[in-house]
Amino acid sequence: MKFWQKLRKTNKPVIVVSGLPRSGTSMMMKMLQAGGIEPVVDNIRAADDDNPKGYFEFERVKQLDKGDTAWVAEAQGKAVKVISQLLKYLPADYVYKIIFMRRAMPEILASQKKMLVNRGEDPNKVDDEEIAVLFEKHLRNVMTWLDTQPNVSTLYIHYNETLADPQTQAEIVNEFLGGGLDVERMTAVVDPTLYRNRQS
Given CA atoms 146, 147, 149, 153 in this order, what sign does their dihedral have? Predict the structure, then answer.
């Protein structure tokens, strides 16, 4: 019997939080942690003005496309943040439950610009319309790929709806993950005051 087949018998999926940059992935990671799911993080990237509640990142995730996948075995039953561009590099011999965050495109672009300003970079070095077209094309490709993976189930959660009604979205996430999460605590950690870069 192969090693991964033994791992699959644990029946604990890897819980992945994904989405475009600035789409609410850190907020969802915090919700899952509050609900009782251990996050896979290394705390190398500290909280800042752009993400005052923390980024909930694990640096080795960024090496998925270079073949660094050994850590995935330890992520079973836990939650890990993976940017959408790297999802296809997750090893196919594990089961994944992916919570994919969506957000209004103008808000994503506004949030990106603010982050660039905070870092002292030029926020206008790339045209918004050009970025939006690339992001939308990428989203279509990723969603099509997710739909065709037999070892993946995906739940799409909207950032804006989560801030407006966190309890309902927390209940949806709880059901998707099989129940047993602390929905009240998940709801309590959502901070509407962080809802910046609204679409005007």
Answer: positive
Entry pTM: 0.81
CATH no. for residue 8? 3.40.50.300
User: Residues 94-144: pLDDT tens digits?
Assistant: 999 999 999 887 787 776 656 555 556 544 566 667 777 888 898 999 999
**For the CA atoms of 181, 172, 93, 43, what is the dihedral angle to 10 degrees?**
-60
Centre a 10 Å sphere on the Cβ of residue 46 and count the other Cβ atoms it contains.
Answer: 8
Query: What is the tally of structural domains in the chain?
Result: 1
Are 86 and 64 spatial neighbours (Cβ–Cβ below 8 Å)? yes
Let me know if residue 195 belongs to a domain: no
Q: In what order do the strands lie in the sheet with 14-19?
A: 79-81, 14-19, 96-102, 152-158
Q: Is 104 exposed, middle or buried (0-12, 13-18, 19+ CB in 10 A)?
A: middle
* 120 within some domain: yes
User: 140 or 7: whose pLDDT is higher?
Assistant: 140
Give the 3-state secondary structure of residue 102: strand
Report yes or no on 141 lying in a domain.
Answer: yes
174 is in which domain, residue-wise?
3-189
Q: Which range, of 16-20, 75-79, 129-133, 184-188, averages the lowest pLDDT?
A: 129-133
Distance of alpha carbon 138 from alpha carbon 142, whole angstroms:
6
Mean pLDDT of 75-89: 95
Is 164 within a domain?
yes
